[in-house]
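Protein modeling request. Please complete all fields; requests missing the sequence field cannot be processed.
Requester role: graduate student
Desired output: 3D structure, token encoding
Chains: 1
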Amino acid sequence: MSGTLVLAGTPIGDVADAPPRLAAELAGADIVAAEDTRRLRRLAQALGVQPSGRVVSYFEGNEAARTPELAEALSGGARVLLVTDAGMPSVSDPGYRLVAAAVERGITVTAVPGPSAVLTALALSGLPVDRFCFEGFLPRKAGERLARLRETAGERRTLVYFEAPHRLAASLAAMAEVFGAGRRAAVCRELTKTYEEVRRGTLEELAAWAEEGVRGEITVVVEGAPAPSGREVDAAELVRRVAAREAAGERRKEAIAAVAREAGVPKREVFDAVVAAKNSGAG
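Delivered output (283 residues):
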């Protein structure tokens, strides 16, 4: 008889948010696979429970190697509990490989629903929640980050990202460049913790704020692209508007940013139109 794989949500900050079933699963599982065994033991202590089964580490560095071992245990009838440091396993955390292996073997996979930074940030953002997509972490390299953002420049659904605090300012600036400086967003920091903060504003405003330095766990929520207007602004019109502003004394960089905000398009689109016009001799 095959076993059962249980994916359990863990608190993203306040330990009191732990789902009631988590303690029972920790006490009864044959194996507890934890992203960080030290944090798992602290959580168990806070919940007043002692895992009765074997506790093993299951993190990014050993996920590929440990998955076959856990899959074999599941095939042998073990009840395996999978927990990560915060939130639901598999959501930008270890877990997908083990779930896939269990499904392939016909093993039952169930969950103990729990806290999620994605849904918590989305609900607190003040942005539309009827349709959204989760984009995880953006690439660390600037060029790859811009390329990823351009893939979703026209996405109408609300976008949710995780980001490291030391990369937040650069990521917000890249979003402002690709999505448009005036696109609304929310930076959710330290959710459910003592210093929880939700900062709302335009991408341009948030990028400037983040330059001062931000700490903690970060989730970014960005509104989707606006619906196409009845009349699309073509490249020639964008160039004309920039030229008019330059003639009035604005620097080209500021003129491009202003026209992008007015037209509801990314600055890159306006910049490319101006460069193309200049190269063709039209600008």
